[in-house]
Design a protein that fits this description.
With about 325 residues, the chain is an alpha/beta fold. The protein contains eleven helices and 14 strands. The strands form four sheets. The chain has a six-stranded parallel sheet, sandwiched between helices. Helix 4 links the parallel strand 4 and strand 5. The structure holds nicotinamide-adenine-dinucleotide and (2S)-2-hydroxybutanedioic acid. (2S)-2-hydroxybutanedioic acid binds next to helix 9. Nicotinamide-adenine-dinucleotide binds next to helix 1. Its EC number is 1.1.1.37.
Amino acid sequence: MAKAPVNVTVTGAAGQIGYALLFRIASGQLLGADTPVRLRLLEIPQAIKAAEGTAMELDDCAFPLLAGVDIYDDPRKAFDGVNVALLVGARPRTKGMERRDLLEANGGIFGPQGAAINDGAADDVRVLVVGNPANTNALIAQAHAPDIPADRFTAMTRLDHNRALSQLAAKLNVSVSDIKKLTIWGNHSATQYPDIFHAEVNGRSAVEAVNDEEWLRDTFIPTVAKRGAAIIEARGASSAASAANAAIDHVYDWVNGTPEGDWTSVALPSDGSYGVPEGLVSSFPVVSRNGSWEIVQGLEINEFSRERIDASVRELEEEREAVRALGLIK
Ligand SMILES: NC(=O)c1ccc[n+]([C@@H]2O[C@H](COP(=O)([O-])OP(=O)(O)OC[C@H]3O[C@@H](n4cnc5c(N)ncnc54)[C@H](O)[C@@H]3O)[C@@H](O)[C@H]2O)c1
Ligand SMILES: O=C(O)C[C@H](O)C(=O)O
């Protein structure tokens, strides 16, 4: 029997990432080549016309797996019955805007969207927040969805993970597929910590293969952590195709499982693992089993890593305090 279509809601659908993402979802790359999808696009009223244009192009691709495209400016309608929610639309930081203003503006988006997901989503809903500040936006959305298991709310650090794979592969002159067990810890920000201490290259220790602490500290970590800013500087706009690609990787692995012998990186509400305060949406090494993320346990954290994980987690705590003070979460 043919599978029923999966409802995939994409917010910010008329934006750059939306344009790079929607065609890949409709072609089957998000969920698999045998899973039909119904796309539900959420946009602000001013961008509805542009979203309609994208929907026309989606029609023109005649994707066999695309069961339909609906466009909304009301989150309650867009998230009704949603199975996979990709929260891409966010308020960007503009000139002169303080961090507090940015958090407040995004709280005004992600609080109501979390509440709409809570009230209308399907039982198996999975949420990926891409819009920045992604970790804290996910925290806000999750706080407004008390009826949904907290671990269904995730924020994206897969782009950072893929960037780290690529940088390490270039350094060692190997293929990205030769590298396993790399981790991004903490916040999707410049404080994130890309960790290669448990990583393997063709089965041997990546740190031993690199054998260059100075490169690790002064080149690899800052290059990965500041890559988003470097892309903005070069392109005049933030990463879009690579962000869409990472969102596809994240959801595909969540639904279909991560390969044996490897893990990936996802920001999700902490259960207290590795000393990260409970509830903070922080990035961890994870595997996906039976459709759920599981934090990889039992890794030894050396002093070099501890210091950097703690610094990024401190930043997340500050963001949580700031949104609490604004009354955006309890
Ligand atoms: N986590 C990551 O790795 C990562 C990587 C790249 C970009 N980002 C972030 O993703 C976000 C989107 O990037 P982009 O390049 O597509 O931006 P963009 O400005 O091109 O598009 C954003 C879209 O969101 C829409 N939007 C704004 N408020 C909305 C709301 N309340 N509901 C629905 N739609 C809304 C806007 O109309 C716009 O079309 C940004 O916050 C960016 O910083 C995150
Ligand atoms: O949009 C940004 O600020 C950068 C983005 O999060 C990225 O990592 O490319």
